[in-house]
Amino acid sequence: MKLDQEIIKVEILVIGGGLAGCMAAIRASEVCGSENVLLVEKANVQRSGNAATGVDHTWSYMPEYHEPLGFTVEQLVEDHVQAMGNLQDRDIINTIATTIKDRLMDMETWGFPVRTDGEWNYVKKIHRVPTFLHWAGRDQKVLFARQMAKRNIPVLNRVVIADLIREKNRVAGAVGVGVRESKFYTILAKSTVMTTGGIARLFPGPTSWEFNRATHPQCTGDGVAMAYRAGAEISGMEFLYLHTGPKNFHKKGRGSWIGITEDAHGVPIGRVSEGVDRKKISISVESPGDMRRIYEEGRGPVLMNCSETPDEDMDYMKWALMNEGNVALLRYLEERKMDPKKYRVEFSVYEPELRAGIMIDTKGASSLPGLFAAGDTIGNIKRGVSPGAFAMGWLAGESAADHAKDESFGELKNVRDAIGEKRALFDTFLTRETGASWREALVACQDTMKGYGGSVRYASLLRAGLAQMQRVRRNAMDSLKAKDLHELMHCISALNLMHVGESSMLCALERKESRKTLRENFIRVDYPEENREMDKMLILSLIDGKPFFQWRDPRPVS
Amino acid sequence: MPPVIDRERCTSCGVCEDICPGDIFKMDDDHPEVHYPEECFHCGACLIDCPEEAVSYRIPLPMLLPVYEKGFFEK
């Protein structure tokens, strides 16, 4: 099989059709017309991205609800810094906090059920202030797909973008391949918006079942890797983020459970609040570190105990989990008559993830002209999630449309060689008689991260890890074989994860200290103390193929 | 292997193949088939969107959820 060539010219290209990509495409189409926008998605916009089958909450600030309570936007920004650490750009958090109300109101007019029974259903759950809007978010991607269709925004589903087109100092579009049609796409665009989601599957999972992941396993850091290769600034790569949830049946949504986490002997393992509204405030709050300690102290396993949860609250918990992408888990419990009120469910700490990526300004522009980014693909903050996608997606789409007004298309003749190389590489993967499968490449990447770039890190180990990752990548390029287009998609993801891993280890080597937040840690065995001089964001970019580091203070609220 | 299609109920409308985020279904002779069962991540999209409720999951053995009755650890 060889790939046919298709060349597309469009003013604004949006890569990835999750929440951020849809918002970016919608706003860009409002500014410059839907015919000038193209959204490319490797799955189907209807059910793609980390919100594929739902997110039950959106942190936000709604003046009509929060002002009477005395809560301020400043408190919300501070809450984020307290929870996820100092190394975040407050101007981005503030931009999300101050514009999200408009996005939610827009979404309500588009038919999204952002209010529950007519009320702003704000909850605290495991957070410090009641800024989490609980809502029936299960079908938000379906509603976005409907909104895109209503606006005649062109969507290319089942096409995976493989690389950005860099023309001189700017991004001039991207190349990709069909997942179902044997085509190699060259897309020339005046503005490109990167919204490919987060970084899953960089490390082996807690079970050996590869796709058993708490977050969407198809979000493999593609956008971060592509931006890194193109020379964009990325940040946050050295930190490892930990999440917790049901053991073996890995799903996000810890905050939706209403019960007490305890050890095998019924002793709570975290902070427990009594006499609170369980629907609004999590009665039990524990950190991944607390959970690990329980095992090490001989008190495991860790259990979620819902036996004291009233029936009404159990119903609410199931409603929330259903809207948080846990439909399969709920059905599993129901079919096996495993009522969580009667049975304690074992919980565990999941594998490390990176909450890191492309650096943007408050308008969504990256350090490279022509490249914009939003959603979980950005590295300025640690907990952008759905409101980050809605708010920054909107702004990135607007900025991309504005940028396109004064920009010209790239010249194909200037970039033909780079594009030709990529196409030839994929043709080789598809036509090679024998070779390495994508699984081999992925396992080699994940094992390298586990062995050299995981929770135990120090200089010599990281240097060895970098050498190994480069060895793995070189050999993968020379030996990968894809039996079909579906496997080619996985080959592209595996190669991208190798670049993500490489950038993570490069940054880990550069940060000569150790520091911890509630859900993230950075441990250097050779530099065990926190170094206040490194209380800065570490920004990595490739200049002439070589890593270039910058340290800068987190930006204040502008 | 997950997911399982109930052939009695399935009308071969193709929704599951169309929307699956993992691209695990293929249409064989106009009927949806699970081509990459090990890549299913149980997001629930096909369970939710199948108009005939013809899809169910068989959860793989490594994903069996450990649960414990009251008093289990006091035995």
Question: What would you note in describing this structure?
Answer:
- The complex is a heterodimer of chains A (558) and B (75).
- Chain A has 558 residues and is of the alpha+beta class.
- Chain A folds into three domains: 9-241 and 353-413, 3-Layer(bba) Sandwich (FAD/NAD(P)-binding domain), CATH 3.50.50.60; 244-349, Flavocytochrome C3, Chain A, domain 1, CATH 3.90.700; 414-549, Methane Monooxygenase Hydroxylase, Chain G, domain 1.
- Chain A has 14 helices and 23 strands.
- Chain A has helices at residues 19-32, 63-66, 73-84, 90-109, 140-150, 222-230, 288-296, 311-323, 327-335, 385-405, 412-431, 438-452, 459-479, 485-510; strands spanning 4-15, 37-41, 57-59, 122-123, 132-134, 155-157, 159-167, 170-178, 183-194, 234-235, 240-241, 244-246, 260-262, 271-272, 284-285, 302-305, 343-349, 357-358, 371-373, 515-516, 520-522, 537-543, 546-552.
- In chain A, α1 packs parallel to α5 and α13 (459-479) runs antiparallel to α14.
- The termini of chain A are far apart.
- Chain B has 75 residues and is α+β, with helices and mostly antiparallel strands.
- Chain B has one domain: Alpha-Beta Plaits.
- Chain B contains two helices and five strands.
- In chain B, a hairpin with a 2-residue loop joins β2 and β3.
- The radius of gyration of chain B is 16 Å and the shape is elongated.
- Chain B starts with a strand and ends in a 6-residue tail after the last strand.
- The mean pLDDT of chain B is 95.
- The chains are: A alpha+beta (558), B alpha+beta (75).
- The interface between A and B is large, with 51 and 34 residues.
